């Protein structure tokens, strides 16, 4: 049984992937209307035991419109003229997407501006205010 290795912790069984070959638009010469060289790869991420809940959530946001409401990731490949290269390309894109989803974002540490930064900001505001006040044509009595 073949396995797709995504990361050290995530491996996906080939049986979880569904491939369908369809007629491709674009280049192909005389074969374009005869050979189904485009690939449609489906991966049911919602029911996959290999993915944790947080990876699933990140995958959903990364996939965007490529994921259905049921949680099925659908990738199309028709970049190349032959079926095998399209198949390899789609699988490489699936692996890349899952690898990016497996990386947890680094939590942001809140920081405060330094005293010098606050003073500089206030000084710039005063300078700007004086400049604008000097522009006015108001005659003061």
Which key terms come to mind for this protein?
141 residues, alpha+beta, Double Stranded RNA Binding Domain, 3-stranded antiparallel beta sheet, two-stranded antiparallel sheet, 3 helices, 5 strands
Helix run count: 3
Which descriptor suits the 3D outline? elongated
Major sheet strand order: 3-4-5
CATH topology: Double Stranded RNA Binding Domain
CATH class membership? Alpha Beta
Helix content: 25-40%
Which percent band covers the strand fraction?
15-25%
**Topology pattern, helix = H, strand = E:** EEEEHEHH
C-alpha termini separation: 93 Å
Q: What's this model, at a glance?
A:
By secondary structure, the chain is of the alpha+beta class.
Summarize the helices and strands and which ones pair or pack.
Blueprint: E1 3-5, E2 11-13, E3 17-22, E4 38-44, H1 53-63, E5 72-77, H2 83-102, H3 115-135
Antiparallel strand pairs: 1-2, 3-4, 4-5
Helix pairs in contact: 1-2
Description:
By secondary structure, this protein is of the alpha+beta class. It has one domain (3-102): Double Stranded RNA Binding Domain (2-Layer Sandwich). The chain contains 3 helices and 5 strands; from the N terminus they run E-E-E-E-H-E-H-H. The strands form 2 sheets. A 3-stranded antiparallel β-sheet has the order 3-4-5, with helices on one face. It has a two-stranded antiparallel ribbon with strand order 1-2. Helix 1 packs across helix 2 (83-102). The longest helix is centred in the C-terminal third of the chain and has 21 residues, at 115-135. The termini are far apart.
């Amino acid at each position: 049984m073949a396995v797709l290795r995504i990361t050290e912790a995530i491996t996906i069984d080939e049986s979880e992937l569904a491939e369908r070959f369809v007629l491709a638009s674009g280049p192909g010469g005389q074969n374009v209307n005869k050979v189904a060289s485009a690939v449609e790869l489906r991966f049911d991420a919602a029911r996959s035991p290999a993915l944790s809940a947080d990876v699933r959530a990140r995958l959903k946001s990364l996939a965007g419109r490529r994921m259905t409401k049921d949680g099925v990731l659908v990738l199309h490949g028709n970049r190349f003229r032959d079926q095998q290269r399209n198949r390899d390309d789609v699988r490489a894109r699936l692996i890349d997407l899952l690898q990016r989803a497996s990386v947890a974002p680094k939590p942001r540490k809140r920081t405060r501006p330094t005293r010098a930064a606050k003073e500089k900001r206030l000084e710039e505001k005063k300078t700007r205010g004086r400049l604008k006040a000097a522009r006015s044509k108001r005659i003061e009595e």
